[in-house]
Amino acid sequence: MELAGTADANMPKCYSMDMSTDFIPMSVFAESSQGKSSVEGKIYHKFDMKPPNENIEDYAKLCRERTNKYMTKTRQIQDKKKIQAKGPENRRTRRDPEEMEKIMFKLFEKQPNWTLKKLIQETDQPEQFLKDMLKLLCVYNNKGANQGTYQLKPEYRGSEDKSEALQTTSR
């Protein structure tokens, strides 16, 4: 057998092929666009391609180079000093709950629905503290167009003095 269009000069262009039937027959499967599998055929013969003996050293060198090329690690090592760990200086600090309520109401005036991630970014508050505030003030949307977001409870929407409404409901 002769190969056409080989890119490497060390790659042999002619091979001898040996056919054998001394292995377990295999089947060829195909998958349709609907995801169904079907048997397309059976394989009864095995073909081994061998390069000619005069080029065997060049071919072995080519195989070693190819193996070494794919064995090199592509991972990058990061310096530990550059990676910031959550230490006391990087932690978010809790605000006063009343101050936080006012901030939350201002945010919900701008936009009626917020994700937890966006609220953490906007308020720069610890996640658990923000979740506790959201339990008091908001309803989580499980379904619909606003799935995965929080919106103010009906008693706080459109209220003139929202913090006063909150104090009366928490008593």
From TrEMBL:
Keywords assigned: DNA-binding, Nucleus, Transcription, Transcription regulation
Domain of life: Eukaryota
SUPFAM superfamilies named in the record: Winged helix' DNA-binding domain (SSF46785)
Annotated GO MF terms: DNA binding
Compartmental location: Nucleus
GO biological process, one term: transcription initiation at RNA polymerase II promoter
Sequence ranges assigned to domain TFIIF beta subunit HTH in this UniProt record: 94-157
GO cellular component: transcription factor TFIIF complex
Predominant location category: nucleus
Annotated region (Disordered), positions in chain: 73-99, 149-171
Pfam family, one: TFIIF_beta
Basic and acidic residues bias locations: 76-99, 154-164
Database matches in PANTHER family: GENERAL TRANSCRIPTION FACTOR IIF SUBUNIT 2, TRANSCRIPTION INITIATION FACTOR IIF, BETA SUBUNIT
Family stated for the protein in its record: Belongs to the TFIIF beta subunit family.
The protein, known as: TFIIF beta subunit HTH domain-containing protein
